[in-house]
Amino acid sequence: MPESESRPIVWSDELWDDLLRETDAGVCYQCGTCTATCPLAERGALNVRQLIRLGAFGSGVPGRAVDSPGLWSCTTCAQCNVGCPRGVDVVEVVRHLRGRAWKRNEVPAGLRPLLWAEFQDGNPYRMPPSQRTQWMRGLSGPAAGSSDGASTVLYVGCTASYDPRAQRTARALARLLAAADVPFRLLGENEVCCGETPRALGAQGLFRDLSSRAAESLRTAGATRVVTISPHCFDALRAGLSNEVEVVHYSQLLDELVSGGKLKVGGTPAPNLTYHDPCYLGRQHGVYEAPRRLLESTGAKILEMPRNRRWALCCGGGGGNMWRESDLEGRLADERVTEARDTGASVLATACPFCITCFNGTESAGTGRLEVVDVAEVVARAAGVSSA
Ligand code: SF4
Ligand code: SF4
């Protein structure tokens, strides 16, 4: 079976009972607002209203397979949650149905080795833990997290640890923290995946296992605050760790540092800049203004795209789609980059390594010159700190 093909859900009373007990699908009254706002619906990849109906009511025939169109295409962008008049957490329903598919061994072929890599190597890139610190090339002193006794941990995350493009963001951020005299530590080889991909794919057992491994590493390091680079780590650590550790996204911390005068910016501003809200920072956690304040603190003027903040179009990389072949007719990232270019901006800033990967993939497909940068890199340039 091709990896992109949807698998049916085998209907049972148990599935129904579980869904109604563990999610709020039962209050759905089938208005279809979720489908009307879902960016995958117009591409024919997903009818989420129908998916909920199938999940909640099925065919009514125990043991009969019901179609689950697009179950694995959902990017967990939460656009549907924003518009639902009944307050249904549709993303949770999707995760739950995916979890049921795992229990019945009805998952796309490529996902199993991905989750084995998470289990065995502690990352989805199938990279050895011994290479987790390679992103630190050229860093030394406080920027290398060598502050003794620091209770703030910079949680680099798998993408910024292993992906060469995202490594640049990690280095820029480490240098910015050092420039602002924020003592921090790194977990190095003891850092494991936050578990965002297993969580999004409905593999709750593996997510809980990775969360407890992350919690143990943080406890051993004496951490009371974790700063994440990826909004996906931000979301997963907040969901998986107990309240003893505060989890913040780096944009929130840098915003505080700049506002408080601890981090000086004021270099050459980036010209004609637009900002893309990552789903897991904006819609999922309401962090819209901190990245914008940061960008404006550099002197940049933000040219907003028509779809911004809670209505921002997803880049397409969430929900496990970073590791699956897309079965969409037009990639969401293509459309988003077109929107960015239509503002007249020559720089597209965002604050998520998945978004950057998706947008850069679009650029290399020949859709025109638009520099895609992380907000941390814009701030680093304005602060006179290397962003290489
Ligand atoms: S928007 Fe909410 S109530 Fe309407 S169909 Fe979707 S989940 Fe159900
Ligand atoms: S999370 Fe996004 S992709 Fe998934 S159903 Fe909702 S709107 Fe569609």
Q: Could you provide a short overview of the structure?
A:
Helix content is 40%, strand content 7%.
Mind explaining what this structure looks like?
The chain has three domains: 9-103, Fumarate Reductase Iron-sulfur Protein, Chain B, domain 2, CATH 1.10.1060; 111-257, Rossmann fold, CATH 3.40.50; 264-382, Rossmann fold. Helices cover 40% and strands 7% of the residues. It has helices at 13-22, 33-37, 48-56, 79-83, 90-103, 111-121, 158-162, 164-179, 196-200, 204-220, 231-240, 250-259, 289-297, 332-342, 353-364, 375-382; strands at residues 9-10, 65-66, 152-155, 225-228, 246-249, 273-275, 347-350, 371-374. A three-stranded parallel beta sheet has the order 3-4-5. A three-stranded parallel beta sheet has the order 6-7-8. Helix 11 links the parallel strand 4 and strand 5. It starts with 8 loop residues before the first strand and ends in a 6-residue tail after the last helix. It binds iron/sulfur cluster (2 copies).
